[in-house]
GntR family transcriptional regulator
Amino acid sequence: MDDESWALSPNTRKPLPELIEDKIRSLIRSGKFKAGDRLPTEPELAQRMAVARSSLRTALQRLQLQGVVEVMRGRGWYVRSTDVSEHDEPLVFDRRVSDADLMEVRIALEATAASLAATRATQGELDDIAKLAKLHQSASIDDKDELLQTDEDFHSAVVRASHNELLDQLYRSLVPQLRGYRRNSYSSSEVHVRSANDHNQVTWFLKRRDEGGARAAMATHLLGLYSDLVAQTGTPPGERATLTTYALEDEPRWHRE
């Protein structure tokens, strides 16, 4: 494919990552890439578009959240869907909506998705979720981008395994709004260890097709992050969400290796 076809639009009013995103969309829409096709490597794409890899990665992550492309660890980026017209920009919430508000909705959404995934996920999806849990566990504590990406890959896989398209769309709208806080939350090895252990617990319940266990494990996992968040904002304990808020009176039966 000649480099000329990769030239970006001269529209300078858009940020560079959005111009890159538009170009990749147009290439998919034109039929140059079909569902399941592997995109050129990041260095190749960056060279062909004459852009920095950081801007390229941002564009690819935006497309990933919209369900257009997906990343396969160690293999690269692949086209997930060529129906790009249905994958509009993620919802942009009112700026008055706090991170705590978003997290409360995310807990309810992902707890439901985990419960559905426990009964609907294929064996292949369960195997992929287990692999993603291990990738997050082995991510370098010094690389916040890797920690965030492996974390998002795990959660995205669980939501997709619910086989509920609306849940998937809502999740992909929520995640970008919380990315800044999530990246900064990896401030210590303890946070990473807790996150990795929680992912393993969710995976354990999913493999056993335990709807209630998967739901409680996911809610408990996200409530840990939520508790850290509201503590920073000084929210009084009586106003914070708990397991009971989500109709869960007890913590899950934690599995010990």
